[in-house]
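EI: anyone free to look at a 245-residue chain?
SC: sure, send it
EI:
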Amino acid sequence: METTAVIAASRQGALKRQLEVVANNLANMSTNGYKSSQMMFVEHIVKSKGGERLISPKLTFARDLATRLDTTDGAIETTGNQLDMAIRNEGFFVVRDPQGNELYTRNGQFRLDTGGQIVNQQGYPLLSTGGQPMTLGPNDAEINIGRDGTISTENGQLGKVRIVRFENPQDLVQTSGALFSSETPAIDIASPDVIQGALEGSNVEPILEMAKMIELHRSYESAKSFIEREDERQKEMIRSLARDA
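SC: here you go
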């Protein structure tokens, strides 16, 4: 494959991965606490010999480096549900999956399971500052959650919701929807700002993502067309050599 075709193929591959990221953002625009992602690229640009002018804006070898997490807050909306919680400013709730792994989320849509545990929508228990699930008794009807995350009922204090932060949020790995894992240790926040009866929405901006999707499709088709033309040019060269032989 010639250099021009390699460059076009690199561009096409990078665009395909970027399309997958945008499609995932759009699929989660209604997921509470979801954080959108963006691809990070590096372009190797070729200049003409002895000059500053680029050979062509299209002749850039594209290589995707990583996916960047957009950690800006989503809009907080009041729901009035006693177990809904939103975190103002930094912080993540901590839940535990069936394998015993701690996962982190900004999705504060919790409920009670059949045993009275406070769990998220996947059924993973919400952890307290002591690292234990939080369970309400059958006589606990009035649930109050303080701004610091302390949960209490008419029968007394239940515990304090564990809220953590990370030195570098870009170390978080998105496992599904608004759930994250991390190999770096979480740092407990001593004085979080928790809002009861409210949820943080997704931070995806649908109109911007749709516009990005359309632009990416056009660029992808353009790269595909370039490769097809280049392929036809090479075939014609081979046919020409065969005729002249």
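EI: The helical segments are 3-27, 206-244.
SC: 👍
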